[in-house]
Automatic annotation (TrEMBL):
The keyword Iron does not apply. One of its GO terms (biological process) is signal transduction. It holds the Pfam family RhoGAP. GO terms for molecular function: GTPase activator activity. It comes from Bombycilla garrulus (Bohemian waxwing). This is RHG20 protein. Keywords: GTPase activation, Phosphoprotein. Residues 1-169 form the Rho-GAP domain. The keyword Phosphoprotein applies. The lineage of its organism: Eukaryota, Metazoa, Chordata, Craniata, Vertebrata.
Length: 180
């Protein structure tokens, strides 16, 4: 999924914002959940983007770890950009290795899409609004007002992560998928 999104996402207007066919999404999700081999190469890239967001939403405790939720939310309240980056790097050290590897690939894709935002209309802000709710959620449910405020904070955090991903994850994030 990530490789396809890396290849096609940067040239796709509204990637992560638009949804693909609900019927196709449901059929592919059922196949993936049952362990059936699935080829996404001939499917809509919007269905692939929806499948990725769904996969991320179903990671127990979220990929950024709901246990660290308060710390993630408070990162942007800290000093200058350097201090924020250092705080994020310290938080990443507390995540399971599998989560960190997956995050690097996700932000490699988001960075590539953002680099061509004039073409696809998905700058870091737009990408963050679409993907942030799939990356982190609070450990307990709350009122709609608190949840709305939380989503705004997480979206700002994800926007910062996209805009600074090379400094946070390292410059090699741009070459994780090789040359397309």
């Amino acid at each position: 999924m990530l490789s396809l999104l890396f290849q096609e996402g940067p040239s796709t207007k509204g990637i992560f914002r638009r949804s693909g066919s609900a019927k196709t999404f449901k059929e592919l999700k059922e196949k993936l959940d049952s362990g059936t081999e699935v080829s996404l190469a001939h499917e809509s890239i919007f269905v692939t983007a929806s499948l990725l967001k769904d996969f991320l939403r179903n990671i127990p405790g979220s990929i950024l770890s709901s246990q660290l939720c308060d710390k993630w939310v408070s990162v942007l309240d800290q000093g200058n950009t350097e201090e924020k980056i250092k705080s994020i790097q310290r938080l990443i050290e507390h995540l399971p290795r599998a989560n960190v590897v997956l995050l690097r690939y996700i932000f490699g894709v988001l960075h590539e899409i953002e680099m061509r935002s004039e073409e696809n209309q998905m700058n870091a802000f737009n990408l963050a609004v679409c993907i942030a709710p799939s990356l982190l959620w609070p450990p307990v449910s709350s009122t709609p007002d608190i949840e709305s405020e939380f989503i705004k904070k997480i979206s700002s955090l994800v926007q910062f992560l996209i805009e600074n991903c090379c400094r946070i994850f390292g410059d090699e994030i741009t070459s994780l998928f090789g040359e397309i």
